[in-house]
Each structure stands twice: as structure tokens, then as C-alpha cells.
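User: I'll paste a sequence; please echo it back and then give the predicted structure.

Assistant: Echoing your sequence first, then the prediction.
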Amino acid sequence: MAKPRKKLPDKSVDIFCKQCNTKLYQYRKGGKGALVKCFKERITKDFTEQACTCPNCHQVFARETLVRGAPAFKMIGGKVWMK
């Protein structure tokens, strides 16, 4: 399996909690599809105190996993939105 590209994408998105609209991450996303996973190496700013948990409403929005041999967060459907 191929690893994600080392060069970060140009497009940067903000990821928010769907329940309380708290900013969770600033992420360098490639492509124009839905947000399914976040590679840890592409997160530029992390506003969470505990991994995969919203700091405001304490909702779990993702699971830690390995995707193509790289550590990533797999997003739970309907828990986050991006702008």
C-alpha cells in the first residue's frame, strides 16, 4: 500500500464539531470529496486537548487507526463539518 504524499496539499480547511461548532483542527486536505479521514501529519493546528474528543461538548468524533501504514483519524459520519 502506498503512503500519502509527503508534500502537503495547498488547500487548507477548518474542521468543526457538528454539535457545538467548536473548531477542532486546521487540516491540509487533498481533493474535493467528503472528509473521511485525517492523516495526523497533515494536521497543522490541533485545538483538541484529548485525541478524537471535542474539547467543548466532549463528543467523540473520530477513531485512531492506520491508513496505508500512516497514523490517521477515521471520522465518524455526521459528527464533524469543514469549511
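The radius of gyration is 12 Å. Residues 12-82 form one domain.
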